[in-house]
Fold these 3 entries.
Entry 1:
Amino acid sequence: MKAIPYGRQHIDQNDIDAVVETLQADYLTQGPKVKEFEDKFAEYVGAQYAVAVTNATCGLHLAVLALDMQPGDRVITTPITFAASANCVRYAGGEVWFADIDPDTYLLSLESVKQLIESKPKGFFKGIIPVDFAGLPVDLEAYRAVALAHDLWIIEDACHAPGGYFTDSKGVQQKCGNGVYAEMGIFSFHPVKHIACGEGGMITTNSEALYNKLMLLRTHGITKNNMSENHGGWFYEMQTLGFNYRLSDIQSTLGITQLAKNNEGVQRRNEIANRYKEAFEGRVKYQSLPEGMYNAHHLFVVEVEDRKRLYDHLRNQQIYAQIHYIPVHTLPYYKEIGYQGADLSHSEQYYAHCISLPMYPTLTNEEQDFVIDQVISFVNG
């Protein structure tokens, strides 16, 4: 059996031909393919606006800046995420506060968030960054109710979940990142994610004001919108201190062709997940799926008693499972800045047992059967 990674990109001839065509065109960056990708992505998730950026970390950074985050502002997020979900707050000089996860869904626990908010005076917190962990959507309708009651904004970290959705109280399927219940959604186009651009990210929103701020911040804070007949075509203004967080036309072209295949890819990911669940039912714990949710399955995570031994055993069989994630509040940087920890026992318990098994659309049934057999034989001793 050849090596089996936990995730990988799928690039076909259609992707290659499209990128070659762009390489032979007039624009490699700041050209028409960026806007085309943005428009198609916004339509895909059901948002009014989309802003392509260098990567999802840049997207998170611009999102908090567009919401006028100030030094000392406090934001709640989950410790079970990649560090960027928290780091974006630190980039703007804010404070990160962690709430615990639900032990079955592995998502940021709404009850834990409410307890944390209600333990402080009103106005103590400015926002919440929930994460659609492993591809499972957060119930943003419920989060919006809490946010409205306490005057908080929401940034949805949807990096794992393009194509996922939850069903709201009106029976409407709300796609991840559609901007209905969150100010902005953030997506990643890293190679192991659903849509591979090499690197890349997208910010989605339904707010024209936020969209305009994002567009300004993405390109050095520079605009040509105020050019008049008294100015030549070279004229521009730098209105604020922005960044060079642009995505190239080359990457955008690849994003367009990858996006067109995402529905098929998510369907295959769910087929793989269902095969895992059927094999592991009653033997191995895995992420639960609440009613009305559609998991886009960036990851398939299980919990076992001796995670390190299983990790080593699988690697010996050339199955390269991964761990997602070391709790952010336990990382040295967050300890050193003096984070005052709440009760995050579910997050720490999860980390002690979690392991992500191979999950990507080109994983064959034969390869998956081999993974399943190795996990079950390990669990059975």
Note: The chain has one domain: 4-379.
Entry 2:
Amino acid sequence: MESMSTSQFVEELPVLKTFYEALPEENYCAVPDSWFVAVTDVVQSRAAIEAGKFKAVNMAGVAMITGIMNALDHQRIPYIFGGDGAAIAFSPDDYELVKDVLSKTRTWVSDELSLELRAAIVPVKDIRAKGCDVKVAGLFVSQAIINFAFIGRGVALAEILMKQGEYEVMPAKSGEYPDLTGLSCRWMPIEKKGSKIISMIVEAYEGKASIPADVLGELLKMINSDTPEGHPAPEDEIKFKWPVEGVDLEAKATGMSKAKLYLIAFIALILNKTGWSMGDFDPAHYRKQLSLNTDYRKIQDGIRMTLSLQHEKVSELRAFLENQRDKKALRFGLSEQDSAVLTCFVPSIASDDHYHFLDGAGGGYALAADNLQ
């Protein structure tokens, strides 16, 4: 186990089909003691979001995942996206590569997005020495994509240590950037009439090991966690806008000219409206796969979801969570907004393994984390 490469470890992970399967700790594997956890976080992300830079904040959060996957030739690696940052677990074999990507990502975010990105690489053995753990399982998203669930509060501890200035990865020289090929955010914000977009974080109450199983079961049943209901990005709601949004950010990420990106986007718009295919690109199939591959549900020491809910369901959910918090069964943070935003990593439009990271457009997970109590 200790000598396993990152990809070998992932291949042997259990892949859980439902959120109910992701609740028991015995369904997880502890990462080897010699491994590391890399974390990133946008400094003052809430202020940036309030200033209208939510797309830039999300792109900064996804950039580490994109850069590392590109550098590792798209091998699977345990990751989780948190809105204004991300985390990955990896073997010592990949240490220098990951450090290089994080260093260059900090510089790119500063130079091109005018944001400050923290970054740190924390040894798993140090996390365990401080009383936390890093356990991982695969979480089924679609036939083409698995996401990853983390428990043990090791990722949370790594984030705390990063914010304290420990284990810092220093930025590279100005102009030294990672390979962010495939990173984009062209889709319109997703809205549903009569619904609110809810970004939700639910964790065990302070000092308790876990949320009581009956409470968690009732919560998951209330939000229909293992059905398409509540999915904020069904395929018929995912739309292009012309002029397309996000081209400036994509140009900064990929180095492609805006003119070329606008041309590509215009062709995609025509194909989506007509249903025509071009080469290996089938727009109807792509849009369906995009919806399937969207990471609107995840687990990191609790539940993190971005959902589309009717107004009365939002009130019911909030009342339930407040009641359970009063009983010291859990703690939670919510943010409500009118739309959700997608940030995408598309290694190839000809294959189904494209990744779509979802967050609320009015604060999302960053605001939910601020409200966590």
Note: The chain has a mean pLDDT of 88.
Entry 3:
Amino acid sequence: MSFVDDRGTLLHVVPDGAEGPVVLFVQGLAGAWFEWDPVVPLLSADYRLVRFDRPGLGWSQQEGARAPRPQTLVGEAERLGRVLDGVGIAADERVVLVAHSYGAFHAEAFARLHPERVAGVVFVDASVEPDITPAAGGPWPGRAWTVGQRLARATQLTGLNQVVGPAVRRLVYQAASTTRRDPDPELGRTVYRSSRVARAVANELASYRAAAVALLELRCELPFPEVLVQVLVGAAGAGAGGHAADWLERQRGFAGLFPGAEVVELADAKHLIAADRPDAVATAVRSLGF
């Protein structure tokens, strides 16, 4: 098990592949490194793959002694750079970002903040909020964060976190995957029983809207680099409350932010594309030409 020291917080990192272009995976809200397990064997022979857990998730240490530190868009984007630094990726080596759902916020922000480090991006059923407004983001820390942390604390005191966490994970895979195939059910149960993970999940849920607003503002300030972009969309009913047509329209609008981006609609995949169509993720990475 490997860790990098991110300003005093130990982050769990998983490197795969010995050589080749670097691919950094960024999972969605509440996700852990093993969400990408089905994709790894399809790329590890030709790429250097880097997976990691955000603070409090997976095997990573919580950032903050008593409660998670507030998450910010720029903070998480900069963390991606520090993870690359921590595993020995030179600052002048451009990497491919593969980002799922909420992780797409962080990947896009990183690309805008550090275009010199990005070779291409694969967005995997990215979170998109075309109707968000600055007023909707709310102040930070806000009531949602406080309530979430209290609930996480309550589940810890009662021991409910050991039941609720794994149960929610099972429900997510049943609802958001056509195959309903959890990459590692036993590991999933072990990780999501943790009260540390429950606090981190509450932190990310409370941070979501503020991050969406911050990304909207960043788009007005910094251009996206001129790199190839693939936008994979789970078209089998996932996203936007199951309203597939609306979700597809949102994803097409999102792809329009990146000139030349290719949209790949996957009729046999829902939101958890890495579980349903790992081959599509690998093909998207290879299509970038690195």
Note: The first strand starts at residue 2 and ends at 6.
